[in-house]
Specification:
Subcellular location: Cell inner membrane
Number of domains: 1
Main location: membrane
Keywords: Cell inner membrane, Cell membrane, Membrane, Transmembrane, Transmembrane helix
Largest sheet: none
Number of strands: 0
Strand content: under 5%
Family: Belongs to the UPF0060 family.
Helix content: over 70%
Organism: Gluconacetobacter diazotrophicus (strain ATCC 49037 / DSM 5601 / CCUG 37298 / CIP 103539 / LMG 7603 / PAl5)
Distance between the termini: 21 Å
Structural class: mainly alpha
Length: about 110
């Protein structure tokens, strides 16, 4: 259980970094922000990559697959809190399905392919 909670914390931090970094590019290209927003955006994306290496997993693919579910939750939270858009029933259903998938992958743990 401790590994799952630790992985979740790393995944949540990674999602914040990835979404924030990508949002900087979005703001520059689509919302008219100055190019200066790209510097913290790139730093955030670099931190995202480093954070994923902290997850206790034998394989990058399993780490990235489990992270995908957490990323989707983070993106929907971002939609609501940063962009001020409502979360729809379909958003919530999609999040639930993705979290179930991430939980299955995470619960397999190390050495699951044996």
């Amino acid at each position: 259980m401790r590994m799952l909670l630790g992985s979740f914390a790393v995944y949540a931090a990674a999602a914040l970094c990835e979404i924030g970094g990508c949002y900087a590019w979005w703001c520059w290209r689509r919302a008219g922000a100055g190019a200066w927003v790209l510097l913290p955006g790139m730093a955030s994306l670099a931190l995202f990559g480093w954070l994923l290496t902290l997850v206790d997993s034998d394989t990058a693919g399993r780490t990235f697959a489990a992270y995908g579910g957490i990323y989707i939750v983070g993106a929907i939270v971002w939609l609501r809190l940063v962009e001020g858009r409502p979360v729809t029933l379909r958003d919530a259903a999609g999040v639930a399905i993705c979290l179930a998938g991430a939980a299955i992958i995470l619960s397999a743990g190390r050495g699951a392919e044996r």
